[in-house]
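[job 0412] stage=complex_fold ligand=adenosine-5'-diphosphate status=START
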Amino acid sequence: MRALSMESEPIFQQDWAPRAWNLLSKLRDQSPLVQCITNFVSMDLMANTLLSAGASPAMIHSIEEIPDFTPHAHSICINVGTLSPNWLPAMKAAAKLATKLGKPWVLDPVAAGASGFRLNACLELVGMKPNVIRGNGSEIIALSKASLGVSKGVDSSHESMDAMEAAKSLAKASGAIVAVSGAVDIITDGNRVVGAHNGVPMMQKITATGCAVTALIAAFVAVDPLHALEATASALSIFGIAGELGMDMAKGPASLRMHLIDSLYGIDQAVLLSRAKITTL
Ligand SMILES: Nc1ncnc2c1ncn2[C@@H]1O[C@H](COP(=O)(O)OP(=O)(O)O)[C@@H](O)[C@H]1O
Ligand SMILES: Cc1ncsc1CCOP(=O)(O)O
Ligand SMILES: [Mg+2]
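[job 0412] stage=complex_fold status=DONE, emitting structure tokens
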């Protein structure tokens, strides 16, 4: 068995970058419509990230519009960042309809461990079968343990690697692909674990980069819904590459934000193939 896995691993690793390029090309060709029910802080960066990648964002969150609009979306991104009781029914309605229609949807459990209301809302949404859950280390640990955390709020007090076991157990329990962002982004279905090693630390100094990459994951899953783990790893690696390219031109967080968006728009095959770092962990 060991000989088999040692033989197959390099082939698996070599496949990642071309696969990520193939998915980005598909995304640019198909321009999937991504419905985003997201927090006020993230709306601008999220929409611009989706547009620069080639997708079509729509920040449509009113419960009255879900029956008409959600069936047209190719995927849905649900983010609880600025949660209040009157938003939760729309999130649940969109999640329920997406699941019924077989449309992929992705959950961002922002600050899941910050309050009982937020944690319970996230747990209810997890029970509604998201295809992917993407959070930072502290969020995935809180969700996996279903307990409030010693939390800084929306920022993580944990490294992504600290959340490895939590991510695996959440993936097994929920049936979702679970992604933990950080210096190394971890992506797991509960058995396979993949690491995306792109990105720069300064990305943490721009608000809503986590929210934006979750929406990017939704766009990638829209073009390859049957391979959500591969789509998620590709999105995280490509967003990280955009951060790396952007950092070469940036003077600080504000200019990185601008250059990251420009770089995501301009990523070509040669750059992606030479920079993507996705490995089995
Ligand atoms: N130390 C780091 N080095 C490189 N990239 C990072 C680092 N920390 C976060 N990132 C990247 O920044 C983006 C946002 O991640 P993160 O800050 O963990 O999310 P959140 O904003 O939800 O807390 C992700 O694309 C992630 O890969
Ligand atoms: C600052 C803040 N407060 C509520 S939501 C939000 C944005 C969080 O964005 P991210 O999770 O990407 O850091
Ligand atoms: Mg976040």
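The chain has one domain: 16-147+162-280.
[job 0412] exit 0
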